[in-house]
Amino acid sequence: MPGTGFNKGYSMSMTVLAIAEQKDGKLSSISYELITAAQKIGGELITVILAENADSLAADLASHGAGKVLAVTTPALKYFNDEIYAAVVSGLIRKYNPKLVIGPATSYGKSLMGRLAALNDAAMASDIVNLHADGDRVIVSRPAYGGNVIFDLSGAEDKIFFATIRPKIFDESKEGTGEGEVVSESPDDAVFQSKTVVQEMVVESGSSVNITEADTIVAAGRGIRGKENLPMIQELADSLGAAVGASRAIVDADWIAYRHQVGQTGKTVNPKLYITAGISGAIQHLVGMQTSKTIVAINRDKEAPIFKVATYGIVGDIFEIVPALTKRIQAGG
What global pTM score does this model have? Predict the structure, then answer.
């Protein structure tokens, strides 16, 4: 993977603040990936977890190597509100004075980190695939031009730097050294005031597996011929415990909801396994999935562009291959 194989620098004095993500009182997998990313810098690691009941989540993070874990517990943090979260984290930034603040490149993280950078008059880089220290400077790497170029950015030596980390680039931190410390923080009540009040969070029907967090994705394209054939794709995905992805063509045709769209105008994904069925491989789709670790393409056109990025290619009729593959997986083969 671009950006995961080198480590040019290591700082023993730099403080990194990682902002863990929780939904419905459960830590997202990206929270553990942030720990691994932060460890590439060295120095002191501080992890923040904000929740209605943060103590158990903080203990879990500490056991996974999250360094000093700052737990902020209050009913006002039950639901994500970027205005409140940014106010709380900004107070912690002033208290602990980190050089680098990292968060997830998810819908939550992007909203929060952009606001934090503005509040703290600082630079920000998004969708990072690598980072390291060069003395007192932070160097980050991110893709550009549809993922065809990886370039480096650096923060100023005398200023804090913010970055969002692309999910599924770094391995999840599995365990710590047993030296994790949990500190309960109690910000002033004023920071919990907001013009926006979140009453509830509603999960979209059928979205139990988020494509940006999934390890395996089965994606469908125009080659499935119609909305009535989506159950064939869903069955294969279910047999693998996978999320369902889609090309823009079938989203625009109203065969499937936008939340499934992968590509330039959809989501960028980086699963361990990406299976395409009936996707030709237009560049607009490729830029959203070409960094997947293993790509399996199924298409009847042997000249389809998708085969140029595929790890394994299967030329044939998806209406024969997909059901046969599903049956074999369900049988334990």
Answer: 0.82
